[in-house]
Design brief:
- With about 210 residues, the protein is mainly alpha-helical.
- Helices cover about 80% and strands about 0% of the residues.
- It has 6 helices and no strands.
- Helix 2 packs antiparallel against helix 5 and helix 4 runs antiparallel to helix 5.
């Protein structure tokens, strides 16, 4: 499992000549790192008298963020696993009409499966951005920059994952289904990137005011 490698080992695998891990896996890892930041924010808030009124909320948000982190780490490998069937199909050289038809059928299935993983990454990162809103507004002020950083890292992961949806759907023969998947992707992009920007502006303004 690539997620069990050292950071240097993972970077070396990414930089190599193999097509995986690619943008989808890196998006998932980026999202997992971002959720770790929000867990730190929660830990810096829980147990402090000043934030006793939000302690229960922080604990619940931390639990959800930890679950998102586990799911995103699973998606690092899932993206790699879903690419394998596509890789094998690309190398197939069908000769008969039946073989050509079968390859087209399998390609369509593999392309949709490969699109599903980055869509899941987008969903998880979107939820992580939603969690960062609460952390940015109500968690410890000493860690507010980390809440904002988490939101922006998730936004980057979200955007990168969307490209991995589009690169697969563009090759699908079933254009109606492809456009359906593209629409899901676009809705998540619109909703969550704007929310991440709001978190960034909120945190940025808080920090600037602190210097006035």
């Amino acid at each position: 499992m690539l997620v069990d490698l050292t950071i240097k080992g993972f970077l070396a695998e990414t930089a190599g000549s193999a097509p995986v891990p690619g943008g989808g896996s890196i998006s998932a890892l980026n999202g997992a790192i971002a959720t770790a930041l929000t867990e730190m924010v929660a830990n810096l808030t829980i147990g402090k008298k000043k934030y006793a009124d939000v302690e229960d909320e922080m604990m619940e948000l931390m639990k959800e963020g930890r679950q998102l982190q586990r799911e995103l780490l699973d998606l690092v490998q899932a993206d790699i696993d879903m690419f394998e069937p596509l890789s094998q199909l690309y190398s197939l050289k069908p000769e008969t009409d039946e073989e050509i038809a079968e390859k087209e059928r399998l390609m369509e299935e593999a392309l949709e499966n490969a699109s599903a993983v980055p869509l899941q990454i987008m969903e998880k990162c979107g939820r992580a951005i939603e969690l960062s809103v609460a952390f940015a507004k109500r968690a410890s002020r000493i860690a507010v920059s980390d809440a904002g950083s988490s939101a922006i890292l998730c936004k980057a992961a979200l955007q990168a994952a969307s490209l991995n949806v589009y690169i697969n759907t563009r090759m699908m023969q079933n254009r109606a289904r492809a456009e359906e998947l593209n629409e899901i992707c676009a809705i998540r992009m619109m909703k969550y990137t704007s929310l991440a920007d709001e978190v960034f502006e909120c945190v940025s303004n808080q920090l600037k005011k602190g210097n006035d």
